[in-house]
Design a protein that fits this description.
Fumarylacetoacetate hydrolase, domain 2, 14 strands, single chain
Length: 203
């Protein structure tokens, strides 16, 4: 089981981090050890002073596939969720400046929050849904799947060129603008429309 993560999939987030708009999806992986266990707090790692929240819509793969054509991609998932791609931004910046891989800043233990799962059939159109993240009761990230540069089916087509998708794999589809630092005792809650998807405490 692997976590396939997409970077720079929302224009405003690209702008807030002063990155270049990519011509193809930016892809990186997290191991299954990055998954934050249910009902556990998120512990800020001792190697970072600037961990950011990045809320994202998730897609769970339900069949094995390789080189999946976009028109068939919808057959490869039945559930979506919401999660957080925690990022040690200070460490990531140092690694990027040296031209080094930045998995240490993205794939550390606990860096992937996975919320409850919802059936795709419960939505009229998964490319037309709102999602948000609250920190201590205030909305800090607001997103809408219609603003993805690459929609879910396109991401499945693209990533399956490089990786065989297997049952249980999860795609993190990218974060909208509003990423920011988390601090000890913060309370984070994620929502798809009005449904609470997860609630965690930062330690």
């Amino acid at each position: 089981m692997k976590l396939i993560c997409i970077g720079r999939n929302y224009t405003e987030h690209i702008q807030e981090l002063k990155n270049e708009k990519p011509t193809d999806p930016v892809v990186f992986l997290k191991p299954d050890t990055a998954i934050l266990l249910k009902k556990q707090p998120f512990f800020i790692p001792d190697f970072s002073d600037d961990v950011h929240h990045e809320v994202e819509v998730l897609v769970k793969i339900n069949r094995v596939g390789k080189h999946i054509d976009r028109k068939f991609a919808h057959k490869y998932y039945k559930e979506i969720s919401l999660g957080i791609d925690f990022t040690a931004r200070d460490l990531q910046s140092r690694l990027k400046a040296k031209g080094l891989p930045w998995e240490k800043a993205k794939a550390f233990d606990g860096a992937a929050v996975i919320g409850k799962w919802l059936k795709v059939d419960d939505f009229e159109d998964i490319n037309n849904i709102n999602f948000s993240l609250q920190k201590n009761g205030d909305v800090v990230q607001n997103g809408h799947t219609s603003f993805m540069l690459w929609k879910i089916d396109e991401l499945i087509e693209y990533t399956s060129k490089y990786f065989t998708l297997k049952i249980g794999d999860i795609i993190f589809t990218g974060t909208p603008a509003g990423v920011g630092k988390v601090s000890a005792n913060d309370k984070l809650k994620g929502f798809i429309e009005d449904k609470e998807m997860f609630s965690i405490t930062v330690k």
